[in-house]
Amino acid sequence: MLAYAVAVWLLLVGIYGVISSRHLVHLVLCLGVMQSSTYVLLLAVGWRTGGQAPIFVDIPASAPVVDPVVQALTLTDVVVEATVVAVLLALTVQAHKRFGTCDPDQLGALRG
Amino acid sequence: MSARARLVLGLAALAGLGAMLLWAVGGLPDFGHPRGPYADLAPKIMLDERHVTNTVTGVTFDLRGFDTLGEELILFVAALGATVLLRAQRGEREAQEAAAAEERRATGTADSLRALGAALVGPVLLLGAYIVVHGALTPGGGFQGGVILAGALLLVYAAGQVAAVQRVRPVSLVEVADAVGAASYALVALAGLVFGVAAMDNVLPLGTTGSLLSGGTVPVLSVAVGVEVTAAITLILSELVDQMMLRARD
Amino acid sequence: MTALQTVCLIAVAVAGTATVLTRDPLRQALSSGVLGVALAVLFLAFGAPDVALSQIVVAGVAVPVMVLLALAKIRTDDRRSEE
Question: Under CATH, which architecture does the A2-49+65-106 domain have?
């Protein structure tokens, strides 16, 4: 239950960070905190008490293992969301070039 | 609405959301007892039928291979988006001058740092290639190995060898590699149709458990994804580095 | 729930809170790196070495580099517009 509670807490803290952010790069990293809450939730759902990692190189084929399907989902998730962070950072750089400020409250107001 | 009022409203909404989420996770199966047939079936299928010892890679590239195709295309599109956003209008000669200026500036960095960076490039490349190819056997696979390989190219930049990085950009090797990786994944997925079974089916010979060529299409897809991830991340990093270099030139 | 998992979960919660509460983006890149490493250890404690490998490489290498490059670019832009 602690694992689920930590996932919920990370999500709430991340959303609070996004709401109250004063700098676009700070906002993007708070989005990263929200993403990590989903990883924790997925892996907590797949944990089996007494289970081992699902790699059968040196454990017998009948040993109890944790759920591999949620691990597959989380694995691709981690790499893909890093590139989403990259696109958001590119947007930040362009917004700064265009508006001269990195404050989300002041975007779109300045002109030239 | 003032910032203060927005914050108060946001905190109230978050409290409501938190309460509902805690109620929702209370209804999940007990921690430690995953429900659902796939938790038990997937390792058995992967080990007995497909001869793959790393169940997670097997699930990524075989049982749920279609999802991975979509995720790989997200990577491709993200690299495309970052390139479109950041690629300044610049000529070929300007880029070379910027690279030369950067190399002159880089000779100011400590020699030991540059030597260490240059010495580590080879081992890191080897490690990345090893992890990509052994995806079906031990922890690893295309995604992890691809990012490690991109890190090796970053080491080349950190070691001050910017001209070497220049040689693999622009319009070039990296973008072609990106497209080749994404396309080969899609082609292997369609190969099932050619062989007369469902698309994304595991059509190559399955080999024996524990050998490098086991698992049919799983190592092939792992290599395709490895190439694609390396190229996408290198593209994104080189666009960001370019922006910095062009600014520093002036 | 093993003791290691409990410790890792608490470390992740603390690191996440610290990342959000750090306002300066440069310092926040460091806290985010700490969060990444804490998450990687948590993934190992949950029996997921593939995910941990992915997380170490991405949150330790790719994301901090991208954030630092973006911040450097923003700073040089600021300096140029002040001249």
Answer: Orthogonal Bundle (1.10)
